[in-house]
Design a protein that fits this description.
Length: about 450
């Protein structure tokens, strides 16, 4: 991989030699005859790597290393000297040098060290980038919506994130319970530790205890070696127990012990292990009803239900549908322009559809439209179950013209104004949704509002 490298040495011949060597490897090389000159270069240009002599007039290579790590900690530093001592080597490594080699050195040795240092640097930078992306994704941007219901969810997450309190997330399947759990983790002091998720309903009863707590060798048939469980792997972080209502009663007692004592034992183990883990649990079932039925422990329910966050169904937050459609459309397509991505007819169909699968179903629907090649989501690209869904309307009474006649235009204008007001009322004042409810474009809706003098205040 090509990189920008600064070579620092008071000997011109050494600088030129390393310059030719590194240039031949495809790198862009600058040179400095002292540590002071190198610092000036670093103030004007970012370098992926600095290769410096240790013994130079003025500041030494060790001094330069210390300044670089303070000024540009991601820059890899390789030190070269003719007077190698164990004390210098230890000091250099403590200060953050990638490596330390003595003169005379082999050309291949330098090539290998440079290559490995740059590969390590690239991995570190990629890890930081991915971690930043994950934290950005799950800070709150993973949860889409500005409806009243979602704002309440955001406020609760912000309040509980900094605490150690156990959180129970409830709601129908597909409402984003795991996204909420991740948002809690990535807004908490544990954000730099692990977030592990397990679907308790997807693991056989015979294996779930081992999955959570680990096991020792020989504890059961097939246990050929010691194995850590999720509680150990999530040490210092967050463990998300999805579908907690599916956990067998016998294991519920052991979960309760972990929550109370903050310790557990591996299957077949005799030693208690500490559990510094935050628990976030979720269920789409009514756990209180399960407690009454005797299929879920009451004491465990109250331990888990310190704070409860209920994820609203998509039917309850229909105002968020346009924002969700845009988010998923950008996720699955290369679209980066402006303008409408869905027709009013298609949007009206989405508003009318009850979405039993909630946000997950909407995401799959948008992905389908993208796969089918729709530049704009139109009614025809929606599945028949959505496209043909009908909302039953109240039957209109028969109209009769009075003996004295009727002003048809005035009557129609009055009716139109009433429907405009009802659409705005049903949409919570969101004009795009109101327009979709009436089967018209946003521009036509605004025109009709202006026509009747129905401004924001009205």
């Amino acid at each position: 991989m090509a990189a920008r490298i600064l070579v620092v040495d008071d000997e011109l011949s050494m600088r030129e030699f390393l310059g030719i060597l590194l240039d031949g490897e495809g790198h862009r090389v600058d040179q400095a005859d002292s540590a002071e000159t190198a610092l000036a270069c670093l103030g004007q240009q970012h370098y992926d790597m600095v290769i410096s002599d240790v013994s130079m007039p003025g500041l030494s290579g060790i001094d330069l290393l210390s300044r670089i790590k303070a000024q540009a900690p991601d820059t890899a530093v390789l030190l070269i000297t003719a007077f190698t001592t164990a004390e210098q080597a230890v000091e250099a490594m403590k200060l953050g040098a990638y490596d330390y080699i003595g003169k005379p050195f082999k050309v291949e040795e330098v090539k290998v060290l440079v290559r490995k240092a740059l590969e390590k640097q690239s991995l570190v930078q990629e890890n930081k980038r991915l971690k930043a992306e994950v934290q950005e994704r799950f800070s709150f941007s993973g949860l889409i919506g500005k409806s009243k219901q979602m704002r309440e969810v955001y406020e609760l997450i912000e309040k509980v994130a900094d605490s150690m309190a156990n959180v129970l997330i409830t709601g129908e399947s597909g409402t984003g319970k795991e996204l909420a759990a991740r948002a809690i983790h990535y807004n908490s002091p544990r954000r730099n530790a692990s977030f592990l998720a397990v679907n308790c309903g997807a693991i056989p009863e015979t294996l779930i205890e081992s999955e959570l707590f680990g096991h020792t060798r020989g504890s059961f048939t097939g246990a050929i070696a010691d194995r850590s469980g999720l509680f150990e792997q999530a040490e210092g972080g967050t463990l998300f127990l999805d579908e907690i209502g599916e956990v067998p009663l016998q294991l519920q007692a052991k979960l309760l012990r972990v929550l109370q004592e903050r310790e557990f034992r591996r299957v077949g183990g005799g030693t208690s292990l500490k559990a510094d883990v935050r628990i976030v649990a979720a269920s789409n079932r009514n756990l209180e009803e399960q407690v009454r039925e005797g299929s879920f422990r009451e004491d465990l329910f109250y331990r888990l239900n310190v704070v409860q966050i209920r994820m609203p169904s998509l039917r309850e937050r229909a105002d968020d549908i346009p924002a969700l459609v845009e988010h998923f459309y950008k996720k699955y397509s290369l679209w980066s322009g402006s303008g409408d991505i869905i027709t009013p007819e298609a949007l009206r169909a989405l508003f009318n559809y009850p979405f039993p699968g909630n946000v997950r179903e909407l995401e799959n629907l948008v992905e389908r439209c993208v796969v089918l090649g729709s530049r704009v989501i139109v009614l025809d690209c929606l599945p028949p179950s959505v496209r043909d869904h009908r909302v039953t309307a109240a039957p209109a009474g028969e109209l009769e013209i009075p003996e004295e006649g009727i002003d048809l235009q005035a009557y129609l204008d009055t009716l139109e104004q009433k429907l405009l007001v009802q659409a705005l009322d049903k949409s919570g004042g969101v004009k795009k949704r109101a327009a979709a409810l009436l089967g018209m474009t946003f521009r036509s809706f605004r025109y009709r509002l202006a026509k009747f003098g129905m401004d924001e205040a009205d």
